[in-house]
Amino acid sequence: MHEYNFFEPCAGNGALAIAGDPSNIVVNEIDRDRLHVLKKQGFKEIFSQDANKPFPFKKQFDGIIANPPFGGALGTNVINGYHISGLDQQIIVKALEYLKDDGKASFIIGGHTKFEDDGRIKGKKDKAFLSFLAHFYFIEDVINVDGALYHKQGTSYPIRLIFINSRKRNPEGFYPLNDDNISYNRAFSSRVITSFEQLYDRITNIVSFQV
Protein backbone atom coordinates (compact mmCIF):
# COMPACT_ATOMS: atom_id res chain seq x y z
CA MET A 1 0.00 0.00 0.00
CA HIS A 2 1.37 3.37 -1.04
CA GLU A 3 2.32 5.74 1.77
CA TYR A 4 1.48 9.33 0.93
CA ASN A 5 3.72 12.14 2.10
CA PHE A 6 2.45 15.56 3.12
CA PHE A 7 3.94 18.95 3.95
CA GLU A 8 2.66 21.71 6.25
CA PRO A 9 4.91 24.82 6.02
CA CYS A 10 3.18 26.76 8.84
CA ALA A 11 2.14 24.00 11.19
CA GLY A 12 1.49 26.00 14.37
CA ASN A 13 0.38 23.50 17.00
CA GLY A 14 -0.46 20.91 14.34
CA ALA A 15 -4.21 21.63 14.14
CA LEU A 16 -4.43 20.92 10.40
CA ALA A 17 -2.00 18.02 10.34
CA ILE A 18 -3.73 16.23 13.20
CA ALA A 19 -6.21 14.63 10.78
CA GLY A 20 -3.46 12.59 9.10
CA ASP A 21 -0.82 10.07 10.10
CA PRO A 22 1.99 12.20 11.61
CA SER A 23 4.60 9.68 10.49
CA ASN A 24 3.84 10.72 6.88
CA ILE A 25 3.80 14.48 7.46
CA VAL A 26 6.69 16.95 7.34
CA VAL A 27 6.00 20.15 9.28
CA ASN A 28 7.61 23.53 9.72
CA GLU A 29 7.13 26.14 12.47
CA ILE A 30 9.28 29.06 13.62
CA ASP A 31 7.54 29.82 16.91
CA ARG A 32 9.50 28.19 19.73
CA ASP A 33 6.51 27.25 21.92
CA ARG A 34 4.54 25.78 19.04
CA LEU A 35 7.62 23.95 17.84
CA HIS A 36 7.88 22.32 21.27
CA VAL A 37 4.29 21.06 20.91
CA LEU A 38 4.98 19.66 17.43
CA LYS A 39 7.97 17.68 18.66
CA LYS A 40 5.65 15.63 20.88
CA GLN A 41 3.38 14.53 18.03
CA GLY A 42 5.59 12.11 16.10
CA PHE A 43 5.84 13.93 12.77
CA LYS A 44 8.07 12.46 10.09
CA GLU A 45 10.36 15.50 10.08
CA ILE A 46 10.23 18.92 11.71
CA PHE A 47 11.79 22.11 10.38
CA SER A 48 12.00 25.53 12.00
CA GLN A 49 12.66 28.23 9.42
CA ASP A 50 11.09 31.08 7.51
CA ALA A 51 8.49 29.40 5.28
CA ASN A 52 9.41 31.80 2.49
CA LYS A 53 12.98 30.48 2.36
CA PRO A 54 13.97 27.41 0.30
CA PHE A 55 13.54 23.96 1.85
CA PRO A 56 15.77 20.99 0.94
CA PHE A 57 12.94 19.34 -1.00
CA LYS A 58 12.20 18.43 -4.59
CA LYS A 59 8.73 17.81 -6.02
CA GLN A 60 8.21 15.06 -3.48
CA PHE A 61 4.92 15.62 -1.65
CA ASP A 62 1.60 14.04 -2.54
CA GLY A 63 -0.24 16.73 -0.62
CA ILE A 64 0.34 20.14 0.94
CA ILE A 65 -1.85 21.84 3.52
CA ALA A 66 -1.39 25.24 5.14
CA ASN A 67 -3.07 28.03 7.01
CA PRO A 68 -0.27 30.59 6.68
CA PRO A 69 -0.26 33.84 8.66
CA PHE A 70 -2.24 36.65 7.06
CA GLY A 71 -0.82 40.10 6.49
CA GLY A 72 1.64 41.97 4.35
CA ALA A 73 5.05 40.66 3.42
CA LEU A 74 8.27 42.63 3.70
CA GLY A 75 8.51 42.81 -0.08
CA THR A 76 7.11 41.48 -3.34
CA ASN A 77 8.29 38.23 -4.89
CA VAL A 78 8.27 38.26 -8.68
CA ILE A 79 7.73 34.68 -9.87
CA ASN A 80 7.47 33.99 -13.60
CA GLY A 81 6.32 37.57 -14.07
CA TYR A 82 3.66 37.49 -11.33
CA HIS A 83 4.09 39.95 -8.46
CA ILE A 84 3.16 38.00 -5.32
CA SER A 85 2.91 40.43 -2.40
CA GLY A 86 0.79 38.86 0.38
CA LEU A 87 2.67 36.95 3.08
CA ASP A 88 0.21 34.04 3.04
CA GLN A 89 0.25 34.04 -0.75
CA GLN A 90 4.04 34.01 -0.93
CA ILE A 91 4.21 31.07 1.47
CA ILE A 92 1.70 29.12 -0.62
CA VAL A 93 3.54 29.75 -3.88
CA LYS A 94 6.81 28.65 -2.28
CA ALA A 95 5.25 25.51 -0.78
CA LEU A 96 3.74 24.47 -4.11
CA GLU A 97 7.24 24.13 -5.55
CA TYR A 98 7.52 20.91 -3.54
CA LEU A 99 4.24 19.36 -4.73
CA LYS A 100 4.38 16.37 -7.06
CA ASP A 101 3.01 17.07 -10.52
CA ASP A 102 -0.08 14.99 -9.70
CA GLY A 103 -0.27 16.13 -6.07
CA LYS A 104 -3.09 17.97 -4.33
CA ALA A 105 -3.15 20.93 -1.98
CA SER A 106 -5.53 22.86 0.22
CA PHE A 107 -4.99 26.23 1.83
CA ILE A 108 -6.75 28.68 4.12
CA ILE A 109 -6.02 32.35 3.45
CA GLY A 110 -7.48 35.64 4.59
CA GLY A 111 -10.05 37.83 2.89
CA HIS A 112 -12.63 37.17 0.19
CA THR A 113 -12.12 37.23 -3.56
CA LYS A 114 -13.88 40.27 -5.00
CA PHE A 115 -14.59 41.09 -8.62
CA GLU A 116 -15.05 44.02 -10.97
CA ASP A 117 -18.32 44.50 -12.82
CA ASP A 118 -16.89 42.66 -15.83
CA GLY A 119 -16.15 39.59 -13.69
CA ARG A 120 -12.39 40.05 -13.42
CA ILE A 121 -10.60 39.81 -10.09
CA LYS A 122 -10.47 43.08 -8.16
CA GLY A 123 -7.22 44.19 -6.53
CA LYS A 124 -3.63 43.77 -7.72
CA LYS A 125 -2.65 41.42 -4.89
CA ASP A 126 -5.40 38.86 -5.44
CA LYS A 127 -5.27 39.22 -9.20
CA ALA A 128 -1.58 38.33 -9.34
CA PHE A 129 -1.86 35.45 -6.88
CA LEU A 130 -4.97 33.76 -8.28
CA SER A 131 -3.84 34.32 -11.86
CA PHE A 132 -0.54 32.63 -11.00
CA LEU A 133 -2.33 29.62 -9.51
CA ALA A 134 -4.74 29.33 -12.44
CA HIS A 135 -1.90 29.50 -14.96
CA PHE A 136 0.32 26.84 -13.39
CA TYR A 137 -2.11 24.60 -11.46
CA PHE A 138 -5.54 23.06 -11.82
CA ILE A 139 -7.68 24.89 -9.26
CA GLU A 140 -10.74 22.91 -8.22
CA ASP A 141 -12.31 25.72 -6.24
CA VAL A 142 -11.81 28.88 -4.21
CA ILE A 143 -14.46 29.30 -1.52
CA ASN A 144 -15.35 32.52 0.30
CA VAL A 145 -16.23 31.65 3.91
CA ASP A 146 -17.83 33.92 6.50
CA GLY A 147 -15.30 34.32 9.30
CA ALA A 148 -18.12 34.22 11.86
CA LEU A 149 -18.25 30.44 11.40
CA TYR A 150 -14.95 30.24 13.26
CA HIS A 151 -15.58 32.71 16.08
CA LYS A 152 -15.32 29.87 18.61
CA GLN A 153 -11.72 29.42 17.49
CA GLY A 154 -11.05 33.05 18.37
CA THR A 155 -11.35 34.68 14.95
CA SER A 156 -14.09 36.17 12.83
CA TYR A 157 -11.90 37.31 9.94
CA PRO A 158 -13.23 36.38 6.48
CA ILE A 159 -11.32 33.51 4.91
CA ARG A 160 -10.98 31.56 1.68
CA LEU A 161 -10.40 27.88 1.08
CA ILE A 162 -8.29 27.03 -1.96
CA PHE A 163 -8.22 23.52 -3.44
CA ILE A 164 -5.61 22.55 -6.03
CA ASN A 165 -5.57 19.30 -7.98
CA SER A 166 -2.19 18.85 -9.70
CA ARG A 167 0.22 21.00 -11.67
CA LYS A 168 -0.42 21.82 -15.33
CA ARG A 169 1.99 20.09 -17.68
CA ASN A 170 1.73 23.05 -20.06
CA PRO A 171 1.10 26.25 -18.08
CA GLU A 172 -1.80 28.16 -19.57
CA GLY A 173 -5.17 29.67 -18.81
CA PHE A 174 -6.76 32.26 -16.59
CA TYR A 175 -8.87 32.46 -13.47
CA PRO A 176 -12.55 32.12 -14.50
CA LEU A 177 -14.67 35.25 -14.77
CA ASN A 178 -17.13 35.73 -11.95
CA ASP A 179 -20.83 35.00 -12.46
CA ASP A 180 -23.07 36.31 -9.67
CA ASN A 181 -25.84 33.94 -10.76
CA ILE A 182 -23.92 30.76 -9.89
CA SER A 183 -25.34 28.88 -6.90
CA TYR A 184 -23.31 28.77 -3.68
CA ASN A 185 -22.61 25.05 -4.19
CA ARG A 186 -21.02 25.44 -7.64
CA ALA A 187 -17.29 25.75 -8.24
CA PHE A 188 -15.93 29.31 -8.20
CA SER A 189 -19.16 30.79 -6.92
CA SER A 190 -18.25 34.06 -5.21
CA ARG A 191 -21.17 33.78 -2.79
CA VAL A 192 -20.05 33.77 0.82
CA ILE A 193 -20.59 30.49 2.66
CA THR A 194 -22.42 31.28 5.89
CA SER A 195 -23.04 27.85 7.45
CA PHE A 196 -21.22 24.57 7.88
CA GLU A 197 -24.04 22.86 5.97
CA GLN A 198 -23.36 25.07 2.95
CA LEU A 199 -19.64 24.45 3.28
CA TYR A 200 -20.17 20.69 3.38
CA ASP A 201 -22.39 20.83 0.29
CA ARG A 202 -19.87 22.91 -1.63
CA ILE A 203 -16.87 20.74 -0.80
CA THR A 204 -18.59 17.39 -1.38
CA ASN A 205 -20.01 18.61 -4.71
CA ILE A 206 -16.76 20.02 -6.06
CA VAL A 207 -13.59 18.81 -4.42
CA SER A 208 -12.10 15.42 -5.34
CA PHE A 209 -9.82 15.28 -2.35
CA GLN A 210 -8.93 11.60 -2.35
CA VAL A 211 -5.19 11.18 -2.95
What labels would you give this structure?
globular, 211 residues, two-stranded antiparallel sheet, 4 helices
TL;DR of this structure?
The chain is α/β, with parallel strands linked by helices and 211 residues long. It is built from four helices and nine strands; from the N terminus they run ββαββββαβαββα. It has a seven-stranded mixed beta sheet with strand order 3-2-1-4-7-9-8, sandwiched between helices. The protein has a two-stranded antiparallel sheet with strand order 5-6.
List the topology elements.
Elements: E1 6-8, E2 25-28, H1 32-38, E3 45-47, E4 61-66, E5 72-79, E6 82-86, H2 87-96, E7 99-110, H3 124-136, E8 137-145, E9 159-167, H4 196-206
Parallel strand pairs: 1-2, 1-4, 2-3, 4-7
Antiparallel strand pairs: 5-6, 7-9, 8-9
Could you explain the architecture of this structure?
By secondary structure, this protein is an alpha/beta fold. It contains four helices and nine strands, in the order ββαββββαβαββα. The mean pLDDT is 91. It starts with 5 loop residues before the first strand and ends in a 5-residue tail after the last helix. The protein is 19% helix and 28% strand. A hairpin with a 2-residue loop joins strand 5 (72-79) and strand 6 (82-86). The chain has helices spanning 32-38, 87-96, 124-136, 196-206; strands spanning 6-8, 25-28, 45-47, 61-66, 72-79, 82-86, 99-110, 137-145, 159-167. The strands form two sheets. It has a seven-stranded mixed beta sheet, with helices on both faces.
